[in-house]
Design brief:
Blueprint: H1 7-13, E1 30-34, H2 44-50, E2 60-64, E3 75-80, H3 88-102, E4 107-111, H4 115-120, E5 123-125, H5 128-134, H6 153-166, E6 170-175, H7 177-192, E7 198-203, H8 221-242, E8 246-251, H9 258-267, E9 271-272, H10 275-280, H11 285-301, E10 307-312, H12 315-318, H13 320-340, H14 345-352, H15 358-366, H16 369-375, H17 392-405, E11 416-421, H18 423-426, H19 432-450, E12 456-461, E13 471-476, E14 481-486, E15 489-494, H20 504-510, H21 513-518, H22 534-537, H23 542-547
Parallel strand pairs: 3-4, 3-6, 6-7, 7-12, 8-10, 8-11, 9-10
Antiparallel strand pairs: 1-2, 2-13, 4-5, 12-13, 14-15
């Protein structure tokens, strides 16, 4: 880390994260209570067959008391996997302090560049001096991250060789649903081969789609959405000041709309599309566009030619007719890519329409030419159309403009600006909530490592009750799994948690969006507060407060 710290960075380093009561006296003073045997969320027989050694183990909770395990120097490796999320450094700090509480001779190794660092034995020793420089800092730069998947026999054997060389007691993989699935697979393989190293996980993703009864939120979500909401609030203030632009803001969240929904709850936009609702209602692209255009027209009739709309990154894949188009395009390009090479967009469209269904061809033809071109860009490593490259917000702007032109009664003006907020939130300095939560997750992982709990994920619950009442423990990763079709094969994966339309956060939003559409109910969250009254500095998200009953619908 650079020595040219800002004043905020320097002050933030000195913040002391709070811990649940059970962890305050160190990892050796934690008593473990075991619950009943568990089973996966679905496909129980298949998951059990794939994880015979780690399936069915109980959920565990921690309480203050004497551990049954004797003190010994621990040797632990840590991996940052997948996209960055605020608070990752504090997870590592929690692991570091936790294993040092067992023995000052404990060693923490950081594998460089994600899972590939573990596979190839590229690592650093994280000592006290290095750890101090990264406490409460955003980003993953202490050891960087990566997206390598550990899934082949050769990779597993290389991981065993590295684990044996370093004499590791545990490996902690910090990541999202795919990364923690990898952790479970690696842990199962190690146990099957008699390797003494256990593998544990920590729940990370700003998308918010790794959660359940025991994982109330994934770390980084709180900070990322607060960061986006500050920017959205700034734009709202500008929109309400100039009163001449519509702002269309795309937000990260390809598989789930939790970010868009939480940002809406924090800022009250005139329009917020929720991908899961679009899919549930089987809305076609034309219907989605009409819904947005209706709000623009409603406000224009009131003399308000301005507004703010929030768009989830993954919206297009949730629109049924566009989803079919994307699937058919992926298939067509897989077989005919060379035949369209070098052609201009119009010629490509003409060719491709002969290889896809009539319905999909009709959808492709109504798209703006720029979007057509983006849909036909090079495919990803799985052979799929790269949906993340499509500027959905621009697509909606152009199609809403076209819709409004075809309305004889529309007398207003429609000038639109587009934005994408994504990377701005991934490496922000963690909020007090994420700083505390991540530190507790890491410390919890050290207790799992000490007690040789293979295939477990750190769990810290009761998050709306205040840190003193948080409950730490471990959750079997297999408990969260189901079987999904991936790259032409059935794979065990952690089931993604999408926005639930009968859930309290969505219901709260749905009950208010009609009013937000026609009025300027905008709220301006401002920057994250690190100091001040608890109700300002330690505030949690609307999503978790509504889900956990700390706020009424």
């Amino acid at each position: 880390m650079s020595e040219n710290f800002s004043a905020l960075s320097k002050a933030r380093q000195s913040y002391k994260p709070k811990l649940p009561v059970a962890l305050k006296k160190g990892a050796l003073n934690v008593k473990i209570a075991k619950g009943k045997a568990t089973e996966s969320v679905s496909d129980q027989a298949k998951i059990k067959a794939l994880f015979p050694n780690t399936y069915g183990v109980p959920v565990v909770s921690f309480g203050a008391g004497k551990s049954k395990v004797k003190a010994k120097a621990l040797r632990v490796g840590v991996v940052l996997s997948g996209g960055q999320a605020p608070g990752g450094h504090n997870v590592i700090a929690g692991i570091f302090d936790g294993i040092k509480s067992v023995s000052k001779s404990s060693v923490l190794y950081g594998f460089l560049g994600g899972p590939s660092g573990l596979e190839n034995g590229k690592y650093i020793t994280i000592d006290a001096k290095k750890m101090e420089a990264y406490r409460n800092a955003g980003g993953f730069d202490i050891i960087q991250s990566g997206r390598t998947k550990l899934e082949t026999e050769e990779q597993f054997q290389k991981c065993i060789a590295v684990s044996n060389k370093l004499k590791l007691d545990a490996i902690v993989i910090i990541g999202g649903d795919d990364s923690n699935t990898n952790a479970a697979v690696l842990g199962e393989y190690f146990q099957e081969k008699g390797v003494s190293t256990v593998v544990c996980g920590c729940p990370k993703t700003i998308d918010g789609d790794l959660k359940n009864e025991f994982i109330e939120t994934s770390f980084g979500f709180d900070t990322a959405v607060k960061t986006y909401s500050e920017l959205i609030g700034n734009i709202m203030r500008d929109a309400n000041s100039a009163q001449k632009y519509w702002h269309f803001i795309k937000l990260m969240g390809r598989s789930a709309s939790h970010i868009a929904l939480e940002a809406a709850l924090q800022t009250h936009p005139n329009v917020c599309l929720i991908s899961e609702e679009v899919r549930e209602k089987k809305m076609k692209l034309a219907q989605v566009i009409r819904q947005v255009a209706d709000v623009v027209a409603l406000r224009a009739a009131q003399g308000k030619n301005f507004g703010v709309a929030l768009i989830p990154e993954g919206l297009l894949e949730f629109i049924p007719d566009v989803g079919v188009l994307i699937s058919e395009l992926s298939e067509a390009l897989a077989h005919h890519e060379k035949e369209v090479e070098g052609l201009d967009t119009a010629a490509k469209v003409e060719k491709i329409c002969g290889w896809i269904s009539a319905d999909s061809a009709a959808v492709l033809k109504i798209l703006p030419q720029g979007i057509q071109a983006q849909l036909m860009l090079g495919r990803d490593s799985h052979g799929n159309v790269q949906v993340s490259l499509i500027e959905t917000e621009k697509l909606i702007i152009e199609m809403v403009k076209k819709d409004l032109k075809n309305r004889p009664d529309f007398k207003g003006k429609f000038s639109a600006l587009n934005h994408f907020f994504g990377y701005e939130g991934r490496c922000a300095a963690p909020s007090n909530f994420d700083a505390d939560y991540c530190y507790a997750l890491g410390y919890t992982a050290s207790v799992l490592a000490l007690n040789k709990m293979n295939g477990y994920m750190s769990s810290v619950r009761n998050l709306t009750k205040g840190v003193e009442k948080w409950t730490a423990g471990g959750l079997p990763i297999t408990m969260m799994m189901n079987i999904e079709r991936r790259a032409g094969a059935d794979k065990p994966v952690i089931k993604k948690a999408l926005v639930e339309l009968d859930g309290k956060p969505f219901k709260y939003f749905a009950a208010r969006r009609a009013d937000w559409a026609k009025t300027e109910s905008y709220t301006y969250p401002g920057p994250i507060q690190y100091w001040g009254p608890k109700e300002v500095a330690d505030i949690t998200t609307f999503t978790i407060k509504l889900e956990r009953g700390a706020m009424k619908v």
